[in-house]
């Protein structure tokens, strides 16, 4: 039976079972849906099991299929190492898939420029961008090879992963031009009492960088609005009296396009430090090293001169 199973069939198996949809698997694999359906039929015959069955409006893997997901992933990872990293990585000709998890608190120009640079130098490589939230198990995703690099800001980055510093940023406030603080300024009490907007917590009780630091000092700000989409917050600030407190580099991108201004924060914050993290399993990978160099290069090109931090 084993001589009837090739690597392509294993990839279809893993993708169908993780996507739990033939149509989504076809999109991810770049195949026509009938071809994926034909491969699934072969897999069902080989396994003697339906593998994917309907449950209401969705599809779910069978018990036998669930046991196949991790072995299939291991086979694909081994094949990638054998046939990709066994030779030098040439971005111009490589057909490799990169997977990046990134915080949306980053400079809004960062991910667009990173994708542009990767596609310009490695036109045949695919790129998947994943959101990074506080409850995302990025350590496990890195260890399993589902993500190559995680990019974000942590007061204390995890010690069990490789780390590359990208830049540090000053914490400032973004307000509308008509906000009273523009004319009168503010002290700590006035800033705390102002109406603040913050990201929606990823889970009950979760706090971000700003509120964690305030809590350490016994302070609480007046959050009257929350939004899960960080990129939309500056426009909300522009038409209201809301205050956004975050890194200067992020805020700088909106001062020329929206009626907003940057004001100093009266509370002293440490610099927001941004890093890229990766697992030992990809540390020596030629493709992984190339990807991390692109991340580092783009971060350096966008970095404010006064915010420079030596990159590792």
What tags apply to this protein structure?
single chain; 312 residues; alpha/beta; Arc Repressor Mutant, subunit A; D-Maltodextrin-Binding Protein, domain 2; 5-stranded mixed β-sheet; 12 helices; disordered C terminus
Can you put this structure into words, describing what you see?
The protein is an alpha/beta fold and 312 residues long. The chain folds into three domains: 84 residues, Orthogonal Bundle (Arc Repressor Mutant, subunit A), CATH 1.10.10.10; 106 residues, Periplasmic binding protein-like II (D-Maltodextrin-Binding Protein, domain 2), CATH 3.40.190.10; 94 residues, 3-Layer(aba) Sandwich (D-Maltodextrin-Binding Protein, domain 2). Helix content is 40%, strand content 21%. The chain is built from twelve helices and twelve strands. Strands 4-3-5-12-6 form a five-stranded mixed sheet, with helices on one face. The protein has a three-stranded antiparallel sheet with strand order 10-7-11. It is elongated. The C terminus is likely disordered.
